[in-house]
Design brief:
The complex is a heterodimer of chains A (about 190) and B (about 270). Chain A is mainly α. Chain A has two domains: about 90 residues, Orthogonal Bundle (Rna Polymerase Sigma Factor, Chain: A); about 80 residues, Arc Repressor Mutant, subunit A. Chain A is built from ten helices and no strands. Chain B has two domains: about 130 residues, no CATH class; about 110 residues, Nucleic acid-binding proteins (OB fold (Dihydrolipoamide Acetyltransferase, E2P)), CATH 2.40.50. Chain B is elongated, with a radius of gyration of 28 Å. Classes of the chains: A mainly alpha (about 190), B alpha+beta (about 270). At the A-B interface, helix 3, helix 4 and helix 10 of A face helix 1 and helix 2 of B.
Amino acid sequence: MAGFSVNQDQQQCSDQDLVIKTLENKQKFAAIVRRYEAPLFRYIVRQGCKDNSLAQDLLQEVFIKAYLHLNDYDPALPFSSWIYRIAHNETVSHFRKEKNRPCVLDRGEDDFLFERIVDDLGLKEPENQKHPTSEIQAAVDGLESKYRDIIVLKFFEEKSYEEISDILQMPQGTVATLINRAKKKIKACLEKK
Amino acid sequence: MPKKSSDLILDEIEKRNVVPIPRWRFIMKRSVFWILAAISVVTGSISMVTAIYVFLDNDFIVDRANIETLFAQRPFIEEVVESIPYVWLIAMFLFILAAYYGFRHTKKGYRYPMLRIITASMLVSLSISGVLNIFDVGKYIHRYLIENIQGYDHLVYTNEIRWTQMEKGLLGGKVVSQSIPEHLIVVKDYKKRLWTVDIGTAEIHPGMRIYPGRYLKITGVKTGPMTFQAKSIRPWVRRAHKSAPAVTPVTPVAPSATPAVTKPDAQNP
């Protein structure tokens, strides 16, 4: 790595401060990369990018774009929403070019997150009658992409309505409507099984 | 995730020599959308005020009692439906959509629902059009277009068209000259044809003055290729022209034998 370093102070800085510092000295961007590379990588994978090297390429493009557009960041908004928006757009744009969007979510480490969806739907059932994670995953994967995106942000990235509104650039009312519709669709799908 | 991925990202930024885009370019980009939204709201209000003028200028609203003959020939509903200035309504709708697009692309425009933005744009347009209406902007735009832009008359069914039916005894237009001794006026219809009108026996609307530049509605009989015998004369609109020159009122007298124009109007071409 040439010319970039992260020290302890930078790790404790707020995102807004880091942006200001980066604009004065590009070396400070390293702290932003360190802070967001893991969550953004996870988010890109959860959006459907299962190929690790492709996800890494997308992540690289996300950070390059973020650095390029750093002056467009509005400190009134959370930085995480802003950079998640770039990641979302970059991934969606990649899949649009490829004309192929694979399934969104992988089981394994995200299993407990699938169960969170069931809890939220009020479908909690006795242990022996629980919906298997594979069923829930199939229900989520069966959703249209606009619903899947919002479910990922709500239940897997644990974003608030306001943050989702800023990431997907839509009114909060629309976010609420889409979440409700997505939940109904998942519920209907699970109840059929 | 491969190890040291952050280093790779940072190296790539160095390698590509990426530099943040200057702030002024983003400010300019946002300003363009604000300007688009503002211009669209203003042009939308101009469309709205013109639509309002064109619709309200119709005889079934302004002179309903005096236009019974015309309505006898056409069903009222058809008349109303035909008189709606669709072209201006479509223009207004497009400008409102442009305003929505502009506002939606401002920094926080996405936070507001489409319906709220469109309603707000329409309300702002309506407020501006209320102000423009005080200054008769709709009238001036409509008259300029109908007198100068070819094809505009095919897009709107207006009083100008209704009052250009000389065969049916309806003549409307602007007085371009008058001869008081001979009780003649020359009227230019919206197709810019000049009609010599004998007003000697005409019943003139009480309190109305005739002078060059004034728009009139004349009923009567077509007496020749470009001559007309007036039976009744009324002002085109109820509101008086504020800048009209004061001239001596013309009163009905016996018709003259040979219609002739003696004084073309130079002040109001």
